Amino acid sequence: QQDVAPSTARPSSLRYKTEKRGIRYNIMLVGCSGLGRRTFINTLCEKEIIPPPTLEDPDMAHMVDPMKFNKYETQMNEDGTNIFLTTVDTPGFGDGIDNESCFTQLQEYIETQFDEVLLEESRIRRNAKYRDNRVHILLYFLTPTGHGLRELDIEIIKRLGHLVNIILIIGRADSFTTKEIASFKLSVMKDVVTYELPIYNFAWDEEADPESQEENQEIQAIVPFSVVGCDEVIDADFGSVRVRKYPWGTVEVDNDEMSDFGLLRYILLNSHISDFIDFTTNVLYEEYRTLKLNENKD
Ligand code: GDP
């Protein structure tokens, strides 16, 4: 893999305490078909996590498939720390006319993982093999309208933002000009403010040390992250480079000048893992737990 050039916005290295067995980490991918979810996760993990879709039966091509929850597991090593990553992909999201059922299914899936922890916590005898499947990150791939969020995006963020850390992604970023990306980012963030959407706020921890606070504010200013997925790996003088090749030139996936992929990769697999897991466990789950226990009292 190419050495990623240091960026001004790079936060400090892996903050999570290295555990002997490693970190269990769960990421969910949500977005309409064709926005680059599969290519993104395969590029992130540097291997084929999600295989290419099988060819459709032409007789069924007019049918809209229901949304699915496909789980993929992989292990990787980042700065000496083992990461056991589970990816939950949700093909079929937003492809139908009525999306209400997608919203409900996603909410139920995320809440079910919370309910399982709640149940496990209340057992007298704990299950040694119990596996925490709480979703730590939901990567939401925005449809490139060029002018902010759609009703579907707003609705899903409102429905899930109090249950999961939502990170907004602009996939296939090489299809935009630099100006278009900047303007799309601006209008998305305007909508986030206008509709008070609860996406993950990198600058949430006001008690963090000043250096981390500054780093997190720099990252927050980049949101939503524009990413490019790898198409092939080519040999360059300084090693192999992950690219997308076009007749007119080559887009380098890890080049910070060309997209936010390198930075996002570092945030997702290194610098912010502990923040995402801690926020899920100590804030989102705790709020859910309190609500649930109060409901059960009534
Ligand atoms: P998914 O349906 O969201 O999982 O999308 P895929 O990852 O399968 O990608 C859909 C199409 O977009 C495929 O033809 C990919 O080769 C292409 N694609 C994926 N990532 C990029 C990217 O970064 N730039 C461009 N231009 N195309 C991409």
TrEMBL record:
Q: Which InterPro entries match?
A: G_SEPTIN_dom, P-loop_NTPase, Septin
- Superkingdom to which the source organism belongs: Eukaryota
Question: Does the keyword field hold GTP-binding?
Answer: yes
Q: Name the UniProt key words of this record, in alphabetical order.
A: GTP-binding, Nucleotide-binding
Q: Which CDD domains match?
A: CDC_Septin (cd01850)
Q: Where is the composition biased (Polar residues)?
A: 1-11
Provide a GO CC annotation, any one.
Answer: cell cortex
Q: Which residues form the Septin-type G domain?
A: 21-295
Write out the ranges of the annotated region (Disordered). Answer: 1-15
- Which GO molecular function annotations are given, in alphabetical order? GTP binding
Q: Which family does it belong to?
A: Belongs to the TRAFAC class TrmE-Era-EngA-EngB-Septin-like GTPase superfamily. Septin GTPase family.
User: What PANTHER family does the annotation carry?
Assistant: SEPTIN
Official protein name in the record: Septin-type G domain-containing protein
